[in-house]
């Protein structure tokens, strides 16, 4: 990472859970590592009636809860200011401008402003309009905005929101967060594919049988019932995180490492996703909702019994699907995706299953006729492994599966920064690769809207999977009908 960034960071939603758990600890970490040698000031905006001192105390606790031995915490807290503000009030933005100019002067911030919208999406458009009208976006340095998800509720609302924001910020000033893009192993996909000679020649339909992308969680929806009821797993996870992983796995080599070149290739993948007709959608996509069950020896309630959830809710907490990419590299290779809450284990994992080698015919005693697999473990373990076949050490010609594992060493793991730390730093230096471009968002919404529209027509039979399982049995069927299975235990 380069050092020396200076900025006034203004966080809307500074007293929310995301700010305390992720944003302040991440910014603090950057500060402690010396990335703000030039200058930094932070304005936290919230509805609560806090004084700056009270706010500093809350942030201090949040940092201490998340970071071991924060040695420079007192110096950091001095850069923090609180402003109670109703984001609908026009006048409050004039006060914010005055405060911003004073801090800019006092801390020599070079007129750089980074706005962070960590708040309910219904305010995104309102805030950006006011920022522009009040003059807060007339800057001497740069102006950038980081926007949390969800970015819209479907393509139409996302387009509306985008048009609103674009009145105040250009595309190259908008940093739409997908926190999966900040994860070390997701960033590693590109390095593995394009930094090695051995994978790229095989990375196509001649050698790859199928790709499996899983993000399963043991957690339920916790206290997010109200949000989740209007979202569901399709919009909460597939539209963003899962399709982002698919686009990185499937994209063509970019002509350079410039963010515009990389994102262009990702857009091409999303544009090439096969648009399924309603019957194909019913066949290729499975939805599920968790029932109660025992996890870690404790009873956990059904989704319909969670707080702020309708007792007859048809919101899906699980999605599995088979995606096809219509281009010459991937024709005929299914990309299976799967995500769910209250599943057997927390795992973000990508499996590339290669076609079986015809030599298996001669070595028929090779355990299970094992295909080669490249497995990328994103979470909780970080690393990757290659599963190959080798000779069993005996006198017969028996074969056995051999796993060549790489697990991130503990010392590197300790240095692994949180995804948010990576992303906030990128935004501060204007690096957009790991943020979602509008074109990516547009095509993923199109894809997801088609599924949602078909699902709306039919009542699902929910709940249909037990908490602590691998999801509904139709998810297994999706692959078994193609003669395949999910790789659950690698
Ligand atoms: C968020 C979703 O985007 O990602 C949550 O809104 C989900 O519902 C979370 O729990 C999962 O993130 P991670 O990094 O724990 O896989």
What does this structure look like?
With 490 residues, the protein is an alpha/beta fold. It has 15 helices and 18 strands. An eight-stranded mixed sheet has the order 8-12-13-7-14-15-16-17, with helices on both faces. It has a six-stranded parallel sheet with strand order 3-2-1-4-5-6, with helices on both faces. Helix 6 (155-166) links the parallel strand 5 and strand 6. Helix 6 (155-166) runs antiparallel to helix 14. The longest helix has 19 residues, at 232-250. The mean pLDDT is 93. Residues 215, 217, 236, 348 line the site of 6-O-phosphono-beta-D-glucopyranose.
User: Hetero groups bound?
Assistant: 6-O-phosphono-beta-D-glucopyranose
Structural class: alpha/beta
Beta fraction: 15-25%
What would you call the shape? globular
Give the fraction of residues assigned to helices: 25-40%
Average pLDDT figure: 93
Query: How many helical elements?
Result: 15
Give unreliable regions as ranges: none
Looking at this protein, list some descriptive labels.
18 strands, eight-stranded mixed β-sheet, 36% helix, globular, binds 6-O-phosphono-beta-D-glucopyranose, six-stranded parallel β-sheet, alpha/beta, 490 residues
Concise synopsis of the structure shown:
The chain has helices spanning 17-32, 52-66, 73-77, 90-107, 124-133, 155-166, 184-194, 225-229, 232-250, 259-271, 278-284, 410-415, 419-429, 438-456, 473-480; strands at residues 6-12, 39-46, 80-84, 113-117, 143-147, 174-176, 208-216, 285-288, 290-291, 293-295, 298-300, 318-323, 335-340, 347-354, 373-379, 383-391, 399-407, 465-466.
């Amino acid at each position: 990472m380069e050092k020396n960034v200076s900025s006034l960071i203004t966080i809307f939603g500074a007293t929310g859970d995301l700010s305390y758990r992720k944003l302040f600890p991440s910014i603090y970490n950057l500060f402690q590592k010396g990335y703000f040698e030039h200058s930094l000031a932070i304005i936290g905006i919230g509805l609560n009636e806090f004084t700056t001192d009270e706010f500093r105390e809350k942030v201090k606790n949040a940092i201490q809860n998340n970071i071991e031995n924060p040695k420079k915490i007192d110096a950091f807290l001095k850069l923090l200011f609180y402003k109670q503000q109703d984001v609908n009030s026009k006048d409050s933005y004039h006060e914010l401008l005055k405060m911003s100019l004073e801090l800019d002067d006092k801390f020599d911030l070079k007129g750089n402003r980074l706005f962070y919208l960590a708040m309910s999406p219904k305010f995104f458009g309102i805030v950006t309009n006011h920022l522009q009208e009040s003059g807060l976006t007339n800057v001497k340095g740069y102006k950038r905005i980081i926007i949390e998800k969800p970015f819209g509720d479907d393509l139409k609302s996302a387009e509306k929101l985008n048009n609103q924001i674009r009145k105040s910020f250009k595309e190259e000033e908008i940093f739409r967060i997908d926190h999966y893009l900040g994860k070390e192993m997701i960033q590693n996909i590109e390095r593995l594919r394009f930094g090695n000679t051995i994978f790229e020649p095989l990375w196509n339909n001649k050698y790859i049988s199928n790709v499996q992308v899983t993000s399963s969680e043991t957690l339920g929806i916790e206290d997010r019932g109200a949000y989740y009821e209007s979202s569901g797993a399709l919009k909460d996870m597939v539209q963003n995180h899962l399709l982002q992983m698919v686009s990185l796995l499937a994209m063509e080599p970019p002509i350079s490492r410039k963010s515009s070149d990389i994102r262009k290739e990702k857009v091409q993948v999303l544009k090439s996703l096969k648009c399924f007709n309603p019957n194909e959608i019913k066949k290729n996509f499975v939805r599920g909702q968790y029932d109660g069950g025992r996890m870690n020896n404790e009873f956990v309630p059904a989704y319909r019994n969670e707080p702020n959830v309708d007792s007859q809710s048809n919101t899906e907490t699980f999605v599995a699907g088979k995606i096809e990419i219509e281009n010459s590299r991937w024709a005929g290779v299914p990309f299976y995706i799967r995500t769910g809450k209250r599943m057997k284990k927390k795992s973000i994992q990508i499996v590339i299953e290669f076609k079986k080698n015809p030599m298996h015919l001669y070595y028929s005693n090779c355990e299970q006729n094992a295909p080669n697999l490249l497995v990328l473990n994103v979470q909780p373990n970080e690393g990757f492994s290659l599963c190959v076949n080798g000779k069993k050490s005996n006198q017969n010609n028996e074969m056995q599966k051999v796993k060549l594992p790489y697990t991130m060493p503990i010392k590197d793991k300790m240095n692994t920064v949180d995804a948010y730390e990576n992303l906030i730093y990128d935004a501060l230096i204007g690096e957009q690769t790991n943020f979602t471009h509008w074109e990516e968002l547009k095509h993923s919404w199109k894809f997801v809207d088609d599924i949602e529209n078909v699902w709306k027509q039919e009542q699902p039979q929910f709940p249909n999977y037990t908490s602590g399982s691998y999801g509904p049995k139709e998810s297994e069927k999706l692959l078994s009908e193609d003669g395949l299975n999910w790789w659950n235990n690698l």
